[in-house]
Design a protein that fits this description.
The complex is a heterodimer of chains A (194) and B (122). Chain A has 194 residues and is mostly helical. Chain A is built from six helices and no strands. Chain A is elongated and about 65 Å long. Chain B has 122 residues and is mostly helical. Chain B has four helices and no strands.
Chain lengths: 194, 122
C-alpha cells in the first residue's frame, strides 16, 4: 500500500494547489474584514453590535465549530491508518457539528431580520451580513463536500484518492475554523464591548 | 504480520497534536470571552487583548491543525505572503478611511459637497 514516488508527487501537487486556493480565500476574507472594520461604527442611527449580539449564544456556536475541527482531524488520522469505521464515525460527528453550527447562524440571521435589523438597516449591518454570510456559505459548501465523502466511504471501500481528498477537506475545515476565530473576536467580542 | 503502513511523510501527525491544539483553542476562546463579558480592562486595552488572543489562536491552529512548517516549504512561504497581503489590506483600509474621516470631520454634509465639487479635477 505504500505510495510510489510518482503518486506522492501528484498528491503533493494537488495539496499545494488546494493550499493556494485557501490562500486566495484568506485574501477574500481580508477584504470583507477590512470593510467591516471601516464600517463598524456606521450604524445610521440603528443598533450597534453591543445591542444586537447574544454573546453566550455565539460562544456555544464557536465551541461547536472548534470541536468539529478536532473531529475532522481524528477522521483524517483514522483514514491514514485505514480504520474505516472510526473514520466514518468522526466524519459523521463533524457533519452533525457543522450542521448544528449552520443552524445557529441561520437562527441568528432570521432572528435579526425578523426584528427589522437586516442588511438594509445600516452600513454596519450590511458589512456584518456579508462577512458572516460568506463564512456561512463556505460552511454550506463544506457540508455538501463532506456529505458526498461520507456517502462514498460508506458505500465503497477506502481508496487512496478518498484518503487524499479527506486530507484536503481537513485543510478546508480547519481554515474555516481559523476564519471563524477572527469573526468571533473582531465582530462579536470587540463589537460586543459596550 | 506487519501492520499495514499507509503513512507518508505528510501523515506523521499524531493524536496529541490535535488534542493539544483543541485544548489550547478552547482555553483561548473562553479566556477572551471571559475578559469581554466581565470588562476586565477599559475598552481601548480590551480590543488589543482580544486581537492578541485571536493571533495566538491563529498560530496555535496553524501549527497543530494545519501542520504548517511540516511538509513543503512552499506552504509556509505562501502562507506568510498572504498574511502580508492581509495586513496591507486591513491596516491600509483602516488607515486611509480613518484619515479621510478625520480630515472631513469639521465639515457639514453641505460643505463637503461644495468641497468635493471644487476639487473634482484632482
Amino acid at each position: 500500500m505504500n505510495d510510489t514516488p510518482e503518486e506522492i508527487a501528484v498528491k503533493d501537487r494537488k495539496m499545494f494547489g488546494f493550499w493556494l486556493y485557501l490562500m486566495t480565500d484568506i485574501i477574500l476574507f481580508a477584504t470583507l474584514f477590512a470593510t467591516f472594520a471601516v464600517l463598524r461604527n456606521a450604524t445610521a442611527g440603528g443598533p450597534s453590535g453591543a445591542e444586537l449580539f447574544d454573546l453566550p449564544f455565539i460562544l456555544v456556536a464557536t465551541l461547536i465549530l472548534l470541536t468539529s475541527s478536532l473531529t475532522v482531524g481524528l477522521a483524517i488520522l483514522g483514514s491514514t491508518r485505514g480504520y474505516k469505521k472510526q473514520t466514518l464515525f468522526w466524519l459523521i460527528a463533524t457533519f452533525v457539528l457543522g450542521a448544528a453550527f449552520l443552524g445557529f447562524e441561520v437562527y441568528e440571521f432570521s432572528h435579526l431580520i425578523a426584528e427589522g435589523y437586516s442588511w438594509e438597516r445600516s452600513a454596519f449591518l450590511s458589512a456584518f451580513f456579508t462577512l458572516v454570510g460568506t463564512h456561512g456559505l463556505h460552511i454550506v459548501v463544506g457540508l455538501l463536500w463532506l456529505g458526498v465523502m461520507i456517502f462514498r466511504l460508506w458505500r465503497f471501500n477506502f481508496r487512496k484518492t478518498d484518503i487524499n481528498r479527506l486530507a484536503l477537506f481537513g485543510l478546508f475545515w480547519h481554515f474555516l475554523d481559523i476564519i471563524w476565530i477572527f469573526v468571533f473576536s473582531v465582530v462579536y467580542l470587540i463589537g460586543g464591548i459596550a | 504480520m506487519r501492520k499495514p503502513q499507509l503513512e507518508t511523510r505528510h501523515d506523521d501527525v499524531r493524536y496529541k497534536s490535535y488534542i493539544v491544539g483543541f485544548v489550547l483553542s478552547v482555553a483561548a476562546t473562553l479566556i477572551a470571552y471571559f475578559f469581554v463579558v466581565n470588562q476586565v480592562w477599559p475598552k481601548d486595552i480590551l480590543i488589543y487583548v482580544v486581537l492578541g488572543i485571536a493571533v495566538i489562536q491563529l498560530i496555535v491552529q496553524s501549527v497543530f491543525f494545519l501542520h504548517l512548517g511540516r511538509g513543503s516549504s512552499l506552504k509556509s512561504s505562501t502562507f506568510l505572503f498572504s498574511l502580508l497581503i492581509v495586513i496591507v489590506i486591513v491596516a491600509g483600509s483602516l488607515w486611509i478611511m480613518y484619515n479621510l474621516d478625520y480630515n472631513m470631520m469639521q465639515m457639514t454634509p453641505e460643505q463637503m459637497q461644495i468641497y468635493m465639487k471644487k476639487n473634482q479635477g484632482l
